[in-house]
Design brief:
By secondary structure, the chain is mainly alpha-helical. The chain is built from 13 helices and two strands, in the order H-H-H-H-H-H-H-H-H-H-H-H-H-E-E. It has two domains: about 60 residues, no CATH class; about 240 residues, Glycerol uptake facilitator protein (Up-down Bundle), CATH 1.20.1080. Its main location: membrane.
């Protein structure tokens, strides 16, 4: 394009920046290019590309937020990737994720405290813990899902990491927060309950340790498959408003199915807290190997067989804006 006329030059600039922004720059006397007093429409000494770069710098400067907090956020959003990574550290990561970790801690504490509380009456029927855990899971997903995804379970977090939805370092922090929350919730329940507090842990019932681990793997695998299905639906744009109900009812049903055999932990943190405060047993490994193994196998099956295209997902470690289940909420705010 020849820049022999003013109209041609305006058309050139208009192709690269909105007219409104161009007029705003011009009205403030900043539409400069080349030597002092030489307007952008005079291209005698500089190339068109150089003028375009100068104009873009002025537009960027004018759009810079006024407040310090807004400027800091603007710099973080516009900072080149390498520079952003160089400025990031463990402290910055923890500050950005404190809401998610605190939400996981509180949600897991509520889950254990309220769920295990149904076991206080002697010989309580299986329906008590099954419904209690199911309804608390349902409520916590609605309450904390926007902040952290409301995993409340290291096995669910493992499934999210294997599916590429959360960084592995974040998954480790989630598991620690969940274990801490479960311990705090169970400790609070012991502190306010009668002295004759029953054993709140889980132990194999009529089956041996190996069979119990297999049962726990099957139960937790079913839970992981449900989570993967919900995430897949959200990837396809089909956000399910009843996801929390489905998840809660599934937890209740799985406890009904596996309760007589293993106690239906489905959650390593749920079994760890009572064991830590009341004493570990020789079979405690069952409630780590079973749920974590079942969740891992189920996630890989769903990823490579049910949804083969998921294997091509960009790893979460390469994504700067973390997306979390179950509602796929952004945390970089």
């Amino acid at each position: 394009m020849a820049f022999g006329s003013e109209s041609d030059d305006k058309a050139f600039v208009g192709e690269r920046w909105p007219l409104q922004g161009l007029l705003r720059v011009k009205s403030r006397g900043l539409l400069r290019c080349g030597r002092r007093g030489e307007g952008v429409l005079s291209h005698s000494r500089r190339t068109h590309a150089q003028c375009a770069v100068d104009l873009h710098a002025y537009v960027t400067a004018l759009r810079r937020p006024a407040t310090a907090a807004a400027r800091n956020r603007h710099e973080q959003e516009t900072m080149p990737t390498d520079e952003r990574r160089s400025r990031s550290g463990v402290g910055a990561w923890i500050f950005r994720w404190w809401r998610a970790l605190l939400s996981e801690t509180v949600a897991t504490a509520l889950l254990i405290a309220l769920g295990v509380a149904t076991m206080l009456p002697a010989n309580a029927p299986l329906s008590h813990p099954a419904l209690a855990f199911g309804f608390v899971v349902m409520a916590n997903i609605e309450a904390f899902g926007a902040a952290s995804g409301a995993h409340m379970n290291p096995a669910v977090t493992l499934a999210a990491a294997l599916d590429g939805r959360i960084e592995w370092i974040a998954a480790g922090a989630y598991a620690l927060a969940q274990t801490l929350g479960a311990t705090l919730g169970f400790a609070a329940l012991m502190a306010i309950s009668p002295q004759s507090f029953p054993t709140g842990g889980t132990a194999p019932g009529t089956v041996g340790p190996v069979a119990a681990a297999i049962v726990e793997a099957l139960l937790t695998g079913a839970l992981a498959l449900l989570a993967c299905g919900i995430w897949h639906a959200e990837d396809s744009g089909r956000v399910d408003p009843t996801a929390s109900i489905k998840f809660g009812l599934t937890v209740a049903g799985l406890i009904y199915a596996g309760g007589p055999l293993t106690g239906a932990s489905l959650n390593p943190a749920r079994s760890f807290a009572p064991a830590l405060l009341q004493g570990f047993t020789a079979d405690h490994w069952v409630y780590w190997v079973g749920p974590l193994g079942g969740a891992a196998i189920a996630t890989l099956v769903h990823r490579h067989l049910v949804r083969p295209s998921a294997a091509q997902r960009t790893p979460a470690a390469a994504v700067t804006a973390e997306t979390l289940p179950l509602h796929d909420k952004q945390l970089d705010h």
